[in-house]
Amino acid sequence: MTQLSPAIYDKENIFAKILRKEIPCDYILETEHSVVFQDISPKAKVHVLLIPKGSYIDSYDFYKNATDVEIIDFQKTFVKIVENKELYENGFRLIANSGYYGGQEVPHFHIHVLGKQKLSAPF
Ligand code: AMP
Predict the structure, then answer these.
(1) Is residue 96 lining ligand 1, measured as CB closer than 6 Å?
(2) pLDDT tens for residues 60-87?
(3) Bridge partners, residue 51, by sequence
(4) What's the predicted TM-score (pTM) here?
């Protein structure tokens, strides 16, 4: 199996600063291992970001290296977003960009949750 060389987590990325409360954000909810806040540049009527509190670069890093407890917390927090924002009835979109080809701007794992309006086709 291919071994990917480990990338180094940048402790100065903007979401790390949000987690350390060095810069503000529009908090929605927080659990033991995850935080949800408004995207600063929303692309839909609802556009929130879900991040783990742990220092993971992207989805691969998170799902490979996070504990089961962190992963379950993250997934349960996603369910809370869908319920709190009442997204299920009409649908929504999840996006997790990774790395250069994936167009990831902030190198701390996050998923975008967008909804409350019809979204254009992604591809
Ligand atoms: P990505 O391209 O997947 O890394 O997305 C990064 C997202 O973070 C973009 O949608 C930005 O609008 C959002 N963002 C950047 N800085 C902040 C911030 N200070 N607070 C909230 N969202 C932010």
Answers:
(1) no
(2) 999 999 999 999 999 999 999 999 999 9
(3) 35
(4) 0.96
Burial of 67: CB neighbours in 10 Å, binned 0-12, 13-18, 19+: exposed
Predicted confidence (pLDDT) per residue in 19-54, tens digit: 999 999 999 999 999 999 999 999 999 999 999 999
The catalytic residue positions are 110
Identify which of 27, 28, 105, 112 to mutate to test ligand 1's pocket (most ligand atoms within 8 A of the CB). 105
Which residue out of 18, 39, 61, 104 has the highest number of ligand 1 atoms within 8 Å of its CB and is therefore the one to mutate?
39
Question: Is the CATH number 3.90.650.10 carried by domain 14-115?
Answer: no
Q: Hey, where are the domains in the chain?
A: 14-115
Counting atoms of ligand 1 from 1, which one is nearest the CA of 37?
A: 21
Say if residues 60 and 9 touch (Cβ distance below 8 Å): no
